[in-house]
Amino acid sequence: MRVINSKFSRFIFYVSILFCIGFVFQCFVFASSMEETTVILGDANLNEEEQEVLDLINEQREDNGLSKLQPYEELQKVAKLKAEDIVNNEYFSHTSPTYGTPFEMLKQEGVVYKFAGENLAGNETGYKAVTAWMNSPAHRSNILDSDYEYTGICVVDSDIYGKVYVQLFMGV
């Protein structure tokens, strides 16, 4: 193997290194910009029962040093879709026979998120539903997750459960 040791070959070598560094930097900047999601808060139109659940949830979050969740119209729509699906198809599961998992539902509805979760309850009142969630480690973890910033809540009447409560969580 022959090595050319000249100023020109060193120049080409250093330019190549700078090009590679620039390319990696551009990839990093592009990937970083892909992760940013802007949430435009609209009127989530919470009814009285849904607002009560949100107030109780935010009380729990504030008591634990966390920021309040903000209602997000797009999550509200998906929560309503899920609650109505549970009642109409008489099942109780995080996986809908119609729409799949909560994450699949969010994707189908065009909701972009970094973190997401779902709480379900069948109960008589919002107070009882939130109390049950707070007494369940997995549900409590969703409520007190600092990565979540936005929520959608739906409450619908159910012959089987009294009322079905669906809460979706999202962080961007």
Write the layout of secondary structure elements.
Layout lengths: L6 H29 L12 H16 L6 E2 L1 H17 L12 H7 L6 E9 L2 H9 L2 H7 L6 E9 L3 E10 L1
Parallel strand pairs: 1-3
Antiparallel strand pairs: 2-4, 3-4
Keywords for this structure?
172 residues; alpha+beta
What's the count of strands?
Answer: 4
Structural class: alpha+beta
Molecular shape:
globular
Q: Helical content, roughly?
A: 40-55%
Radius of gyration: 24 Å
- Report the total helices: 6
Strand content: 15-25%
Q: Main sheet: which strands, in order across?
A: 1-3-4-2
Elements, N to C (H/E) = HHEHHEHHEE
Mean pLDDT: 83
Distance between the termini: 54 Å
Model regions low in confidence, pLDDT < 50 over at least 5 residues: 11-38
Structural notes for this entry:
The protein is globular. It has helices at 7-35, 48-63, 73-89, 102-108, 126-134, 137-143; strands spanning 70-71, 115-123, 150-158, 162-171. Helices cover 49% and strands 17% of the residues. The chain is α+β, with helices and mostly antiparallel strands and 172 residues long. A hairpin with a 3-residue loop joins β3 (150-158) and β4.
Short description:
The protein has six helices and four strands. The chain has helices at residues 7-35, 48-63, 73-89, 102-108, 126-134, 137-143, and strands at residues 70-71, 115-123, 150-158, 162-171.
